[in-house]
Amino acid sequence: MSISATQVKELRDATGAGMMDCKRALVEKDGNFDEAVKYLREKGMAKAAKRAGKTAAEGAVASYIHMGGKIGVLVEVNCETDFVARTETFQDFCKQVAMHIAAAAPEYVTIEEVPEARVSEEKEVLFSQLADSNKPENIKEKIVEGRLAKFYSEICLLEQEWIHDAEVGKVSDAVTAAIAKVGENIIINRFARFQIGG
Amino acid sequence: MSISATQVKELRDATGAGMMDCKRALVEKDGNFDEAVKYLREKGMAKAAKRAGKTAAEGAVASYIHMGGKIGVLVEVNCETDFVARTETFQDFCKQVAMHIAAAAPEYVTIEEVPEARVSEEKEVLFSQLADSNKPENIKEKIVEGRLAKFYSEICLLEQEWIHDAEVGKVSDAVTAAIAKVGENIIINRFARFQIGG
């Protein structure tokens, strides 16, 4: 099995073990990264590796604290270069997103992140609400589809109305506008929102 | 089945439905809160309820942004009264905890939060490291126990060395000191730590 220099470097970065040890571990474990980490640790050649995701993205983390600490938000927004990440335009946008999250209390960033179980529970409820209706099935389905879109617009950040300017539209539209401004792709990656007593 | 006024109020707060509707839903569902929420929603009498935990605690959310946004921390610290939550002493302590988390990068608050699978994997690695040793089993177990404590002190916030003052000891000791200062119980409830490219 041939092991690439990139694989060796990744393992080295993750474990702090020597180059040759990393190569040997990868050969031994047929290129399996996690197995190789474990191998190195068992041999005492690696420290407890942080389970860090390997994202190459640049960007910034912004926070917003509301009402003297009753609500707090942390948000990570990614862009392509550190240069853009440090601009006032980008930093202001990150701050605006954090404020939006504090006010609008989304639960997920994207529709894709909503757990399947939650969606099917919601669908069940929506269909039950139409149980007494005489409308044909295909109309009921259209109605449920519409209400599901509304459900998403309540819990998914990108689907919510941008609180800073109703004319912008959704948060995803605000992202698009920010992309046009800075000339780089922008992704709202993750957020945390803590509320005291909530 | 008798339904208490407290139950009715909780359901009302969670759903925004009317008092009598809430009582009827609870009677119908034998006092089961989640079932009652679903019942109200199916009847169209409740909005999509936020899945909010019901914590009565007071406290504050603090944040700390490091290196112009490359690392960000959000932390919720609870105390008993809003009065204490607003004091400078308490707010300063929250800020210090946030800074500590930015620097020391814990993964959990307490030892109890570390997933069982992670602990057993760690134990396996630690025993493997002693495989070639001639020490008796009970000594090996003592060694593994000691190293496991070190592992916890790396990944659990409360077990870490308090970065602001080595003489204080662990973060849990800093919490104890803060409790003595403000005269109320203090609990570090949860945190988020985002790092760009990490």
Please tag this protein with its features.
homodimer; 198 residues; 3-stranded antiparallel β-sheet; extended
Explained architecture:
2 copies of one chain form a homodimer. The first copy, chain A, is an alpha+beta fold. Chain A has 8 helices and 3 strands. In chain A, a hairpin with a 4-residue loop joins strand 1 and strand 2 (71-79). The model of chain A is unreliable at 48-56 (pLDDT under 50).
N-C termini distance of chain A: 54 Å
If helices are DSSP runs of H or I spanning 4 or more residues, what is the number of helices of chain A? Answer: 8
What is the arithmetic mean of pLDDT of chain A? 89
Report the helical percentage of chain A. Answer: 40-55%
Proportion of strand residues of chain A: 5-15%
Main sheet summary of chain A: 3 strands, antiparallel
How do the strands of the widest beta sheet of chain A line up side by side? 1-2-3
